[in-house]
Amino acid sequence: MSNIRVTYSGLISLASNLVSVITGLIFVIIVTRSLTPEEFGVWGLISGLLAYAVIISPIVCYWSTRETARGEESGKTAVSTNSMLSLLGVTIYLIISYFVARQSNFDESVILLAVILIPVIFLNDILIAIIRGWKTHILNYGLLSFEISKIVFVTIFIYFWDLGVTGAIFAVFVSYLPSIIILFMYSIPQIKNKFNSEYVKKWFKLFWIPTYRQLPNTILLTDVVIFSVITGSVIGVAYFTAARTIGYLVDHTRAISQAMYPKILESGKQEYLQENLMLFFFLSLPLVGLSIIFSEAGLYILNPIYVIASPVVIFLSLKSFLTALNSNFFLGLQGLEKVDVNKKSTFKDYAKSKIMLHPTFQLIRSGIYFASLAIIFSFQTNDVFNIDLISLWALIGLLVELPLTWYMIHMVKKEFTLNLQWSSIIKYFLTCLGTFGLTYLLIQEFLVFNEEILIFLPNLLPFAIFAIVLYFLITIIVDNRARKLAKKIISELNSKFR
Length: 498
Fold this sequence. Notes:
Elements lengths: L5 H29 L2 H17 L4 H12 L5 H30 L3 H6 L3 H16 L6 H22 L3 H28 L5 H9 L2 H14 L1 H9 L3 H13 L12 H8 L3 H23 L1 H8 L7 H27 L10 H5 L2 H24 L9 H29 L6 H25 L6 H26 L1 H18 L1
């Protein structure tokens, strides 16, 4: 564990995630330009349904990361147990998806076919959990292999073979295989130990903790299911999913904290959170700016019919920023928690721990979100598409995130002694306003939209490059913290490649 380098691993994770954004965007472009809005809506619905099946995966994965980070030999037991749990996930998916398909009058066979994704998701998840607690940077190899493979296979299955949603399912399934192979090869030192039933007893005794933690996120991810069941349509899901592709760009900054979590688990040192937060603000703010000013152009690249969803992108971008910030706070708090180290900890001890406080508040937030959506969706008719309703959907997601952010700030102030350099953060923010404001004006004046993506994309890229380069140049000039951070990044990279 001591070989985990927080800044280096965080940057490498972010870089690989940003590469995955590009590959993921290519994947979505092929899908959105090949499928009708209804077909793309079904694809978005499948993603929501899968959330129900994978809710039980953290039962093993959550503890596996913590145990591996602390040097325990639970790897083989974790892989075996999670693979068996995938069978329960398959059952859950088949039951729920059958009901949803029947209620919504969609093609049952296509939705049910997606069940093949569950075993590979479970296996990939547990290997990720082990690697996260041991050699965090290795996760990026698996991620990149998955993303690159998706492009190759979606091109074959959808673009050349015209298999529609079925092709997308097959493409994702096959793409998981190289990721699993890579992660498995690197995990061998951690999974060659013996199967230990004591770990299984512990995990199932404490199954409610990771399940309870996962429940709020599952509710959030099933908003597309709520929409489809209540309205009987997937058209709105298609527009929301397209907007989410662009709006969730900043969500990838969560990768910065991947190395922080096991490091705090190992050492208990608080300074890792402070370092991580400054890096987060420095890199996440320009990503928010990119998502907002390129909301219309990004949707146009996916498919011109989705351009009207640009307000949805803006709301989702801001929500995604808060979600990523809260994730940093939560991982820091979890890293300090030692309740699971004490083998005599009771139910009451766990219930009062930092492990449970945040999910409880999340659950309240998700419940409000769920109820609000159920009310507004009930006014939607089956045959009418209303972009204002989709915008309201995204706005509600943003609004319910605000109280959680306030709560997390409050909790972090209680547990950590942070000395954030607010002058630097303000400089980052003001630089974003100026840089991306100027870029937006240039886009409005000079960018010519063209349905031919090979013509439009080369015209668009100079504007994005201009905005990014200008932001970093200005921040490095005006802010000493940014200069130190840039030097540290260079130093980390140089030390790696010497």
